[in-house]
Amino acid sequence: MLWGVAISSHQNDGGAPASDWTVAERAGRLPVASGVGADFRGQWRADLDRVRDELGGNAFRFSVEWARVEPEPGRYDLAELAFLHALLEGARDRGLAVVLTLHHFTSPQWLHGGGLSGWESASTAELFARYARFIAREFGSGVRYWLTFNEPSNLLVGGHLAGRMPPFRRGPLAVAAAARVMVQAHELAYEAIHEEQPGAQVSVSEFTGILGLGPGLTWAPGRLMDPLRTRADGPEAALRFKHLDFLSLHYYGDIPPLELLHFPLRFHRFTARPSGFGRILRDAWRRYQLPILIGENGMATRNHEPRPDGMTSERYLEAHIAEVRQVVAEGVPILGYCWWTLTDNYEWGSFDNRFGLYRVECQAGDFTRRATPAVAAFRRAVAAAGPSVTP
For all residues of the chain together, what is the average pLDDT? Predict the structure, then answer.
């Protein structure tokens, strides 16, 4: 089983000059700019050491940022490619299996001009597949697990329905058009990656949660992956997945519905519910019959202040890993578990949501990593799991 952490480029590296998020930050359209994130680029070797030596992990999930790799259509940044090769080699040298995300919310700014209208343009699917093929050809031999998109539902709602994040579109027609293109982009990218790397395992990493509607009243959204399914022929009409090799799910807890209206999201107001985690995992296995990677699981505080519910990151981590062990014992195939996230970072318009196993004062420009008690809790959980073998 894989045990590791998840990060993203924009949140940890800061804004790529050619990305739509950076352009929006510089235009003052977001509450806070990312700066250099958590200075991962300046400290990546030591951070990978922390994953291996201090956490006892054997996996590392990170994103390649399309705008850094291809800042102009068809032009690839050689310095960025060299950095990514070094990062991948560094992970392999430390025995860390890589889970690589191709798109984590940010897109090249050039998708929003020159006759293109971002994810609402049908041609964007082909452009994304071209990018995916390039990355698979360039780095694929060292990567087994691929995620085309990170939380596409949140990107669609935040960027194309509510208009609160790039590309700041608003309305049902915009979100419907973008959803169709993103599904097609995933399918084409899936096929391109498999053509370049036949042994690859490819999926989408999607947000799940339980809406807390009141005392004892909750709703768990399901069928998140249904747009990517096809039905096999025959009287049973059994589900056959052509474009998903596994599931990758994110879980943070009960979501107070009114919090969905707030931007940036205040994750520290989400309610911890470990039993809901087990419920989501069991439901996903029953519905899709595919192995599950827990792409993200974590708990936020507001600037490390005590939470009103008294929950701490170490207690949250221990309780949710206990749920993982329980569903594994019941026969649910769990590929791995990734905590969100290694260090405090930029949380899409805010630095107040603190998820890091290591405390970092990003906004103050102090990038010193300070271990929280959750570091020891993570290491204990990995040790209790016994020897880990990459699936």
Answer: 92
